[in-house]
Amino acid sequence: MQKRLLALLISQLVAVSLFCAGFFPQKKVLKSEAQFIEEPALQNEAKPVFNKLVLVVIDALRSDFLFEKSNSKFSFLHSLLNEGSAWGFTAYSNPPTVTLPRLKGITTGSTPNFLDAILNVAEDDSSSNLNDQDSWVRQFFSHGKKLRFFGDDTWLKLFPKEYFDEYDGTNSFFVSDFEQVDHNVTRHLPKQLNNQQEWDALILHYLGLDHIGHKGGPNSQFMPAKQEEMDEILKQIYENVDDETLICVMGDHGMNDVGNHGGSSAGETSAALALISKKLRRYAPPAEQIGVQLPVQNADGEVDYQYLTRIQQVDIVPTLAALFNFPIPKNSVGILIQETLQLLDPKLAKIKLLENLKQLDSISNGHEVIQDEANIDQLYDLMKDIQSDLTRSATNYNYDLMGMGLALLVITTIITVLVGSNRMEFGHPFFFTMIVSLLIGLSSFGSSFVEEEHQIWWWISTGATLASSVYLVDEKYTHFVILVCLRIIRAWNNSGQKHFNENTVFDILKRNPTEQWYLNFFAIVICGLKGSSGDIVTFMCSFVLTALCLVYKVTWALVNRETVPHWLYEVAYKSCSIMMGDTTDVFDKSLIPLAQLFFRCFAGCVAVAVVACKMGGNKNSHAISTFITLLLIFQSQSPNIPLFFVFDVLKSSLNKIVSKRYNSDAYMISAVSLILQYFTFFHFGGTNSIATVDLSNAYNGVSENYNIYAVGFMMCVSNFAPSIYWSTFTWNLLYKTNKKWHNFFQSKLTFLMFNCISGCCLMFACVALRFHLFIWSVFSPKLCYYATWNIFMNLVIGWILEIPLALTT
Fold this sequence. Notes:
Residues 394-802 form the GPI ethanolamine phosphate transferase 2 C-terminal domain. The protein is of the alpha/beta class. It folds into two domains: 41-116 and 130-392, 3-Layer(aba) Sandwich (Alkaline Phosphatase, subunit A); 401-807, no CATH class.
């Protein structure tokens, strides 16, 4: 069985890899530079409207951050908007709303490739660059213009460095920093403004506002000050440039209600954009801006993120092409912003509009008949139709790879089910696993079911508990405790993507930090020291890790200006003072060394526990689970820490039932672990959307020079913390006998059956719905999560780490 199961696992992972490679291919693009199509001689001789461009990208600048009264502190920019020196827009950014595909969109005008959302975190990846693609950056360079860039180094991944006369990149994923990362951009500004004759385009990309969102959400106490800082920078630029300079300030995407992005919610796709120039006062502002006093006050406090004129974010590309008189990049699906036509000579404006239409028609492989007498509104209607078609049909699937992957997974699934039916002897565990797998698999065909998958796991977990209580009548109290724990877990966080509750336990604890920290202290101490009193070495290891975990989480809260009880403040202050000395910024200086010390101690304690188990049998094996629990607490958000105590209570009740009443059946134990891994993942704040990927703890202990693979691993630990906890649930139940390897392979059969059956359904859904409206916002992220569950949770945690930590001890 062992060799067969291993072969099936490899086959399943290969099948998933093949399908994903075909489903997320690199998009085919037109290469080389564009040339003028409509009356090229006249266009080549025309003078540009502006001579210089200053592009200020404020990462995650949501529309309400610029235009809405209660959320915006851009007072100087508001004054420019009100006097007509600035024109404001809400720019729709196509999902996935992460930086890499959005920068591609605002420079090439092309539609996003979902693969870029994954490549967005690969710092050393070069497959996503734009060396061979046309863009306004390339057009500036090829026309002899001098560009200078300072900010998010994603730009330096996208474009050859020789495009920039001068540059300095800042790291975009070190989210713990939102001050120095922007100071490193602003420090270049005085020199550039004093030497404007040396450049034609200045690109500044600020990351601090996005980092604040990731750490504290859109309503973070740091947000107003950061907006004021950005506003002051815009004022400095505006007051030092002349009428012939266009300032474009924009967000690459927005953010959702918890400060993350990547999905398709209104907050994530509604980015702010403003065109600023002293020259604009001579012209009429957009119709939606006339008579509007900014910032606006939303009626009844409702926010829909739609302000002033609505455009597509990619529309900035042909607009810059028209204003600076260069050809529209070949792959652009953008439309010239209509309000800017008045800045052009009427004859040239019509030519630019026809140029835009013919360029769109060329990449759509269409043959639109363009009437010379067509008016501007008719041309815009035609271009919007083409743009809509191009946006919908932006993907080139590799059907060969998809077919190979799906066929291989179908074969693997059939064999796995046959093996399962034979090994489980058509018993309750077999039918239970099949039912759960089919429920989750068939739900993949409905977008709402994918978005609200947590509901399915809630009913599965409570239904299984109630069924067990009927079967084991004399264990009603234990089942009652289990149901109470499940209900508490469900109430803790917002789960799913359709509904948002402001009164979850998580939010209540954030509003009541004193009570939160009493619960945190209790949970850390109980989870860290539970069961460690019988062995002095185990107790010392547990005590050190518990103390370091507590001090670090308190220090992290203080650095982020959160309130903690005074006695905990004193504990953290004295601990940090011992490490760094009695300095004024002792907490800031201690944060990274504290985390690094914790990780070193964690590695040492695990090594000690493994050696002790080898020498003394299984008596110390539970210590490894305790140390892992402390690591998971360390990598979790503070309001979620008390959940680990609830997990411990739930685990104790389940241990009692499974070990005493179900005879520690390996298939039953693995089924319980499977359900709770998914149930707690969703109710810990996870969803099937990239927008809920939590980066706030991925950089614990990381300095500016970091290893992206280590950060990626810690990001997975942070986001799958509850699932990892419940994967260790099986260890003390399955591996305390001499049949360790036999039980191990039995338990993995359950997970393999689930992954194969649910994966088959998901892949069929992705094929059948590949042209669905929600394919990139719902089904593609679900497929990414499925692949991550298989690689990280199933392979890395369930095989690679479980074997040395659980089976060999």
